[in-house]
Structure formats: structure tokens, C-alpha cells
Amino acid sequence: MTNERTAPREIPDGVRRGIFAVGCMAISAATLGFLGATFRFLVPNVLYEPSRRFDIGSPQDFPPGSVTFLPDRRLYVFNSADGFYAISSICTHLGCNVKRGGPGFACPCHGSQFDEDGQVVHGPAPSPLAWYALSLSPHTQLVVDLDRQVGPAFRLRA
Amino acid sequence: MEVKNVAPPRLHVVFACLGVAFLLIFSWVLLHEGTTEWRSTQARFGRLQASVKNPHQLAQAASVGGLRQIWLPDLGRIDRCGTCHLGIDDPAFAAVPAPFATHPGTWLSTHPADRFGCTPCHDGQGGATDYTNAAHQPQPFVSRPMRPLETIEANCGACHRALDPPDAPRLAQGRRLIVEFGCFSCHEIPGFEGLTFRGPSLASIGYKVRSGWLAVWLHDPKAYLPQSKMGNFRLSTQEITSLQAFLLSQRAQPPLDSTGIDWKRADAANGRALFGELRCVSCHAVNGRGGTMGPELTKIGDKVQRDWLFSYLKDPHRVQPDTPMLQYRLTDEQLRDLTSFLFDEYGSAAAATEPPPVTYQDARLVAEGRAVFERRGCTSCHRLPGFKDTGRIGPSLAGIADRDPDELPYGSNIVRHTTDNYIFLKVLLPDTLGQPSSMPTFGFSPADAAQIALALASIRKADLPASYVVRRPAPAPYRPGGAFGELVDRYRCLSCHSVNGYGGDLSTVPFDRIGSQLRRDYVAKYLLNPGAVRVSVEARMPVFHMVPDEAKTIAEYFADVFVDDSLERYDARFTAVEVRRGQELYRRLGCQACHQLGTKGGYVGPELSTTGARLKPGWIAAWLSKPQTYRPDTLQPDYGLSPADARALTAYLSGSGADRTRGGNTP
Amino acid sequence: METAVSEPRRNRVANWLDAVRRSVCRVGWPVTDKDRAAAMISSLFLHIHPARVSRHALKPTYTFALGLIAGILFVVLSVTGLALMLYYVPYPPEAYRSMKDLQFVVTFGIVLRNIHRWSAHAMVLIVFLHMCRVFWTGSYKTPREFNWVVGVVLLLLTLGLSFTGYLLPWDQLAFWAITVGTNIAAYAPVVGDRVKFLLLGGHVIGPMTLLRFYVLHCVMLPLAMLMLISLHVWRVRKDGLSGADIRTSTEEEAAGVFPASTKTYGLMALSKRPRASVESRDPNDEVFAWPHLLYRELLVALGVIITLHVVSLVFMAPLEEIADPTRTPNPAKAPWYFLGLQELVHYSALVGGVIVPTMIVVALLALPYVDRGKAGAGRWFAPERRVANGVFTALAAVFVALTLIGTLFRGQNWAWVWPWK
To answer: Is A98 part of a structural domain of the chain?
Structure first.
């Protein structure tokens, strides 16, 4: 068992390392790509959830001066003297549904209180309730766009 | 020493090769994802958008990146067609080619995409994101590829259940044919529940027809009557003979006695005059011209026996309780003349002689015929006492559009194996599908068969959520009682006129508000001798030969019951100024182009000289203001008259021919 | 930056980093033979390999790495299967919809599904070939009898996993293959109908069946499989690869396939086992697992993964219309590996559905305890085992032929067709 028998076939160390390095780099690159692909795979391309923009019926469905709660949209719709506006019922603290009580809204979970415009009166809620933009569709339906938040000065005249 | 325990160099080469191969393959995977068809389509749309829109519009336009889907959980559909059809709801792309073109018509505004998606109308695989898999063309394993526009109305029918769906002429025609030919007599057809189709009662057919005619008819009804609603049952000679014997033995009710009639004294000229006066051609065609409600009379002399015809004309309801045919009030002499005229005019020479003796005495043959009658489901359409109701003979057509096309027979017909094609062939040529079929051949034209097939192709297996279904309520049957009811029954008013949508559509005058439209005296007078109100229209009411009391009963009932208060409240005290203004308007609007007043005018619309005597002013004003509200298809233009103008015209027209002394208003 | 750091501080950082590295991976990149052995022994994952292996066993033609490939496929299937679970809903219409989503909207979804599907088929095939190899080399002989039994159970588990996975796409192919497959099971005497009822969670395939198959496919069977694979490999590790008495030819020696071994110390220094199997082996026939075995395993894994990717990019996994219990495709076929049985059932339900499968399983389980001769173990087609090999080969050939007939030569109404026509 002498080592000389294999010696003549030996390729130089440098070349051997080079070949090995090529393989390693290719595998590493592919592995990086694989990690990226895995991340991309996890990002959903289509969503199975209600549209973020939806119509809630015609303005006549909301009598003047009324406040309507739409439970499946988690939304309060107001028809005030100077126009329509919509306030989210999702408490900004931890996402419970706020209830109308007294002059404003109260969250049953952790006691946050909001005024008529959704501004925090007291309690743990860090920010006011969200206001969403309302618009009129060509078929004169009220349309809410959850991707467009507006300030408490917002009113839609319909 | 350590050197010896490193891997052999050959393995390094293999390792490097595999590593590079893996990298290449993985790049291929990335490329595969990055170059999907919809991405390049969206890129093309981006370039197109830049050329179609101005910079301002471009800034307003939503970004087109990514997949778009419409998710309709209640329909169980996900449509991603919008991923490529990006200009579908943007009128700016009206002139660009597919796939970016705007959707034609107003369909998207009547059927918003976020509620109806795409595939409920178009079919195809909505979830796919490339052309091939979306099944724009038929694809393996896609049960419903996109429908071509020729048959797309089948999908309208899935929601629109009314018999005359709007904007779907082929579907409406298909459904009309199904009703007309009574397909639901033999098949259960969802959407046609509650409808009945009745062929003539055969209880006394032995007295009615000639045996020779019966043989011809049973062999092929179309040979005698091309528009016959009865199909060809492809009966054998033996079956025909036995059926003939069986039918001729059906003699429940002998015809009314006509032994006292002296046929030799028949006056053919009077018969011809009566034939015209009774408006027989409104319902019966002769020589290809005339109505279709009743059977064609061209060869009536070869078909029926004279005594029977005499009896039938005298009282049609006696033997055919369901017939739309009315009972005229004629004397025996008039009946004799009419019968004789029909026989001479519409019969060949053979008809003059009495038919040969019939062969219905052979009991075995009669029993055999009865069996054939039962087996072929004749009772589905023809009532005959002594037969139990055995349900529909044909298979139910519920869910027929979802039958498995691979399980259906196509015979030797060379067609693509689809359910649509099967239905079409079955309707057109039921005997060519390679299976014994007892369905008769109706002899539809291919176009008619295609429309029937289209209507049937809208009958799906799974029902849609109720919120998508558009039904028209079936009109409630209208059966008045009392003296008026008897007259309505005798004269079969509802064969042509309708009340609240129930009844016939031959007449353009429904009874709904007729008491507020027509003056009572006019009605009573008109019924005794109906004439044409419109000169140019051939169809008109027949002369019933009513007695004055009957006409009065009807006129009074009309005036009391069929009243529209809004028309009645009209103030009919017109001033002379209004009348003059009306005359001026009449001239300015060019009314005389269509209407005759006095001696001048056109022939398209009704003659107006006697308007005041015919119509009540409230109705005149209402009609002039909004004619299409009352009759959507009328030629009368809507001038958009102001109430004052309408009143002025009414004043002018009410004055014409009205008896001024009577004041112009009936209580 | 480097110049800003003083020399001692750099050392301190390097030492600290080295300490962290050593706390995780105690042995570094091995340079000495001692390290090579220690690397194998001190690592949980590498320890399933011996530190040194018989170089004859490394010859590709000896095992064709079939067991290794099956193991790699199991890992691939687990990884892709977990990924697919993120988008799969085990409820009838949604299940089919999620297949379509994988195809049309999930990034890499279709590639993953294809890989999973083709790996599953490949695994059934490879495990079967692995069994044949073990038989033909007589490797189930003492002391490996029980490992053969474990292997047979693993084969059944593989079939079970593939079968339960077959239903999940909820298309016509899935629905009717499972219908036929479960009805074959129902032919078993006495318990057949009960088994089918339990398997389906009812009398017909429905939402409950899908859920049962889903849980079996994703949790129960993989767990059982993982445990038995551990046992199987553990046994191999303990008993050593068979074939110790095969000599490497001098040509191979000369070609440098394996470097000549030189024993420098006994592994007892590292192993606490009272009697290491290494003692009974010729140290000159052994090489270090690191790198000789590990490197080859890496190459095989790369090869398998590349092949799977290529196949999955070229061939789409089948997906037919959504399952419709009212529309039976003609012919309705079980998954291909059961088509041999379906072909037999076609002749006789009792023979194909009961007698043959029972006999096959019983015979396979009992085999190592019946065939107790020691001659010819560890060599391909040893002449001493001519009879056993002949019988097994003939039976395997018949089974393969029946499967081929059922797969390719049976058309509508199970009538004979020529696939090329």
C-alpha cells in the first residue's frame, strides 16, 4: 500500500481547489436563490378577502341624522346635516369592536373612550378611530375605500 | 498522510458540474416564473396605455401590475380574466384589439363585474392566467370552455328565467318554441312549470275525421300541415292501421243533429261573406296566409266530416273545452252556408263524397291501437277518457346542460362531442343518435333547433343563489263570473285580449284600463259591428253576431270594472282657446302624416274623425303624453308634450266627431 | 478599518468568534484523520454514518445508492409537502381550487407541486428497486432479518403515503383512483368493509374522506415513516453495510477510486462500545466516511434534485376536472402501483383483492426467517442463491408485467388496447 500508486493521477492542489470552489459558489448562489424563492412563494398573489373598496347602498338607505353600524364591514356610517362620513369601529388599541355609548364610542375590551369624531377621550387607545373616504359611484351608490383614510373634517355631500 | 484521505479529484469535477447544473436549472425555474404569459401581456398593455392616453389620464390610471381577480364566493367562482383584459371597463380602449379592448355594449353597466364576474356569462376557466388554460378554445379537462357569441345567450338563461328575457332574442325565441310545441308535455323542464299544452281532445274523433286523412296524418303530420305542432312519430304501417282503428272507435259524443239541414240550398256566396266577416283568417291560415292560433283550413274538406264541422262551428266548446275558438251566434242557415263554403273552397274533389266505411269494429286492432296510443305517450298532449295520468313519458330535462358529453350518444353524426351539440341533434333529428328513441321528429329547421337547444342549454344542474335569479311572476289566471264571465267564455275574449298579462297577445288592446279608455256607448255599438279603427291593419275583431244585450253587458262591465282612476279624474271642460291651440299643434306636429282627420291624412295610425265619440279625454291626454308607457312598440312618437299642450290636443281631438250636446264626459 | 483596530483586540475578537463557533460545532473542518472521525461521531446528523466505511460498499454498482435516494426523496417530499400545505384547503371544492391556484397564481406553486408529485412516484419506484437490490445481494441475512421487515413496512408506508396523497387534488383522477383503490381493500374477508368504512369516514368518498386522507398524508404516515426510517438507518449503522467480503479489484485500486487505507489507531479510543464492529473488519478495507461517503452522498443528492427540477419543468403533474361522483371516467384506474392488483381483480376479486396481496406481504415479512442460509450474502446474484433469486425475480417480473398491462394496455371497459395505436 504505497502512496506512489495514486500520485501520478493527482492534479495540482490549486486546480483541485479551484474546481471545488466553482461547485461551492454555484451551490451557494442556488441556495441563496432558493431562499429568495421560498420567501416569494410565501407572499400571496391574490387575496381571498372582501374588496377593500365596496359599495354600501344608496344614500337614501341612510336617513338624515342617522348612524348606521355595518357589522360585517366594521363601520359606522353617519348621515349628518353637512354630509356623509364613515368611521371604523376597530379600536386602535387591540382591534376590538367599539360600541356607541353615551356621546361617543366605548371599547368593551380595555375601556378606551372616544368622542363623536373618534378622537381618544381616555383609555389605552393610542390614536383616534380611522375615518375612511366615501364617494359616489356612477350608479349613485355610496362607496367606501378602506385604502383611503381621511381626516375628521371629511364630509360627502350626496 | 492527510492528503490521501481527501476526496478523489474526479469527484470534484462531478461536484462542480452538478453545482453549475443546479444553478442553471434553478435559473430556469426563476425564468419560468418571471416570463409567465400574463406578465408580458401586462407589459404590452403598459406600452399601449402610453399611446392611447394623454399624460394626465396616465397619471390618473391605476397601476396594472399583478394578478387581478374577482372572487364571487356565492357563485363559487374566481375570475382572473381582468389580469389580461385590462381595458375592459375603460372606454379609452374601445378601438384597440383584443385582449385590451373595452367590453362592447352596456353589459358591464347592467352586469357590474364585481358582482357578476366574467365566466357566469362567458364560461371558460376563470381561474387561469394564460390564454390556453383560460379555455378560450376547448381544452382537455375543462368542462365548460368559453361559449362562442352564437350560443352565449344560453348563459343569460341561467339567471333570466322569464319566458321572454330581455336582450336575448335567440333565447327568447327558443323558449317561445318550447312553449309553442309543448315540449314540457313529455319532459319535465325547469322554468316551464305550470304551463300546459293541449292538443285537441280525441274523445269524439271518430265522428270528426275521415279515416283516409287520419292515415296520412299519422304517417307524417307535416305532409298535411307543414306548421303542425305534432311531430312525426315514425310509426310503422301496422301501428298506423291499429291507431287508426282505435281513434275511429272514439265516439264519446255524436255531433249536433244536422239531419234537418238541406245542404243543396247552401249559399256559397253567403258562406264566403261570413268567412270574411267572422275574421276566420285572424286565427286560421288558408293557403299559407293568416293566423296560427288555430289549425290551417286549406284542406279542411279532406280532413273532417261535414256533419261534424257543422256541429263544431255551432258549438266548439262542446267537444273541445280548451279550444281558444269562440262560439259565434249564427243561425243554422248561416252555419250551413259557412260549412258548405269551407268544404267546397278548401277541399279536393274527394271531399265531396262521403268517406268509405271505417274499420274500427275489429276489437283486436282497436286494443292494439290503444296500446300504441299509450306506449307512444299520445296522452301527454291529447286527452282521452279512460287513460290514467302516468306522468311525463320523456326523461326530465333538469340539469341537461351539465350532462356528461362523453356519456351521450351521437350516432353517426360527425360533431364535436359536447352537450350542446347533443341537445341540438336530439331536437333536430332524434332518430339519428344511434339509440332507439320514441321522441317524434318535429321537423324543426336547423335555426329553430339551435334556438331550442340554446334555451335548453341554460338549464343547469346546480341552482344559482336566489339573489341572481330574475323571474317574471306567472300571470294570475283571470276568470270572471256572472253574465260577463259567460260572454268572455263564449266569445273567448282572452284568446286575443289580456287582463294583467293573462290572456292572448293577438289584440293590441288589453282590458286592464279599457273602461277609462273607451266610451261605453261606443263599446256597445262597436261590439255589434266591429270595424277597423286603423285602415291599414288587416287584423281586426270578428263580427260575433252578438245580440245587443250581450254588447251592453260587456260595455257596462268594462265601464264599471276596468277603470283607471288617474284617467277618470281628467277635467274635460275645455275652453275654445284650448281647442284652437290644439288645432294649431295638430298641424305643427304633422299628425296628418299618419292619421286621417276629415278627408285628409295618412293611413298608418287610426282614423281620428270620430275620436271624441270613441275615446275618453283622460285617456287621449295620457296616451299623447307618454304613448310608450302603454305600448312599448307603438309607432306613435313621444313628442314630450307639456301637460298644457297635451290638454290642448285632447281638446281638439275630443271635439272631433263628439256629440257636443252630451258634454263629453261619461260617468 | 482594520488598521484602526489594534492587534491584541483583533485577536480577542477572533478568539471570541472561534469560541462561539466551537460552542455550536465542536469539530471544525477536519484536517486530520482524528478530526474526520470525530466530525462524524460528534455530530447528531452525521453520526448516522460510521466514521469509517468499507470501501467496497461505496462502489456505486453495489447499492446504486437506492436507499440513499429514497431517503433524499423523503426529505424533498417533506419540504415541498410542507410548502404546499400553506396553500391547500382540505375541503372538497376548495381543495381543487387550491390546485388551480398553485398552477395559476402562486409563485413557484406549480413547480413545487410537480416536484412533489413526481418525487412521490419516484419514491414508490425507488423503494421497490431498493427492495429488489437487497434481495438480489442477499443483504437481509443474519443479523439483518429484522431490518428487512422494517424495510417491508416502509414500503407499505410509502404506498400508503402515495395513496393518501393521491386523493388530495380532488380531481376526477384522484376521486376515482381512490374509489377503485378503496374498493380493492374492501375485498378483504370479514374486515374489508369495516376497513373501507373507517378509511373513508363513511360509505362514500366525501369531505370526511378528504380530511382523513389529509391527516394521514400530512401527519400520521410521515411521522410513522420518520420513526421507521430512523430505525432502519440505525440498524444499517449498527449492523454495517453488508458485503464485507467483497474485494476491490486491483484495477480499481490502481485507478484510485479509493486511496489505500492505513490504519493508525483503533476507533475504540472514541467509541465507548465494548466491542466495536470495526474490530471484526479488515482495517485496510476501510476509508473515512468524511469525505468519501459524505461527498458521494452530496453528489447523489444534487443529482436527484437536479433531475426532479428538470422533470418538473418539462412534465406537468396531471390535474383533471373537479371530482364528480356522478361521472365515472372510463376506465377508472387506481394509482399505477396498484394497477397490477386491479388487473388481478379484473380476473378474480378474491385472488387480486385478497389472496395475492396478503400472500405478497406475508411472504415478504417472513422471508428472512424462512431463508436462513448464510451463503451468498452481500454479493449480487450469488450462485449459491440461484433458486431464491430465480423465484423472486420471476415473481417481481410478473408483478411488473401486470402493472404495465394495467397501466398501458387497458382501455375503455378494461378492454385490451395497444398503447401505440
So the answer is: yes
- Identify the architecture of domain B205-352 in CATH: Orthogonal Bundle (1.10)
Chain B neighbors of A29, CB-CB under 8 A: 23
pLDDT at C54 > cutoff 80: no
State the DSSP H helix or E strand holding residue C53, giving kind and residue range, or none if neither: strand C52-54
Helix (H) or strand (E) segment spanning residue B450 = helix B446-456
Domain extent, residue A30, equals: 11-48
Q: What letters, b where the CB count within 10 A reaches 16 and e where it falls short, cover C316-346?
A: ebebbbbbbeebebebbbbbbbbbbbbbbbb
A27 vs B contacts (CB less than 8 Å):
19, 22-23
Residues A127 and A66 in one domain: yes
Specify whether A30 is located in the same domain as A80. Answer: no
- Using CA atoms, how far apart are residues C401 and C392, in angstroms rounded to an integer? 14
Cα–Cα distance, C420 to C410 (Å, whole number): 12
**Exposure of B521 by Cβ count < 10 A (0-12 exposed, 13-18 middle, 19+ buried)?**
middle
Residue of C nearest to A47 (CA): C105
Inspect the interface and report whether the beta carbons of A26 and B20 lie closer than 8 Å. yes
CB distance C262 to A1 below 8 Å: yes
Q: Side chain identity at C55, as an amino acid letter?
A: R
- pLDDT value, residue C276: 40
**Continuous H helices in B529-616:** 548-561, 565-568, 576-588, 611-614
Q: Tell me if A16 and B9 make a contact (CB, 8 A cut-off).
A: yes
Does one domain contain both A34 and A74?
Answer: no
> Does the structure's ipTM exceed the value 0.90?
no
Task: Count other Cβ atoms within 10 Å, centred on residue B357.
Answer: 8
Cell numbers that stand for B35 in this block: 416570463
On whether both A44 and A57 belong to a single domain, the answer is no
User: How high is the pLDDT of residue B664?
Assistant: 37
Longest dimension (CA), chain A: 103
H-only helix segments in B117-194: 119-122, 153-159, 169-181
**Residue A83 located in a structural domain:** yes
pLDDT classification of C6: cutoffs 50, 70, 90 = low
Number of domains observed in the structure of chain A: 2
Distance in angstroms (rounded) separating the CA atoms of residues B489 and B483: 10
Residues A35 and A104 in one domain: no
Q: B169-195+394-468: which CATH architecture? A: Orthogonal Bundle (1.10)
Phi/psi for B630 (5° steps) reads -90, -35
Answer whether residue A158 is part of any domain: no
Residue of A nearest to B25 (CA): A30
Does B26 contact A30 at a Cβ distance shorter than 8 Å? yes
CATH topology of domain B568-665: Cytochrome Bc1 Complex; Chain D, domain 2 (1.10.760)
Rg (CA), chain C: 25
Of A6, A40, A42, Cβ closest to residue C259: A6
CB contact, 8 Å: A2 with chain B? no
pLDDT tens digits along C262-287:
444 444 444 444 444 444 456 667 78
pLDDT, tens digit (0-9, with 9 covering 90-100), for C203-249:
999 999 999 999 999 999 999 999 999 999 988 888 777 654 544 44
Residue A29 at interface with chain B, using a CB cutoff of 8 Å: yes
**Averaged confidence pLDDT in chain A:** 86
Candidate CATH numbers 2.30.30.50, 1.10.760.10, 3.40.50.1820, 3.30.1330.10; the one for domain B482-563: 1.10.760.10
Q: What is the pLDDT of residues A48-85, one digit of tens each?
A: 888 888 888 888 889 988 889 999 889 999 998 889 99
Domain edges within chain B: 169-195+394-468, 205-352, 482-563, 568-665
A75-80 and B70-72 beta bridge pairing: unpaired
Whether residues A65 and A138 fall in one domain: yes
Three-class SS state of C416: strand
Contact B546, B528 (CB under 8 A): yes
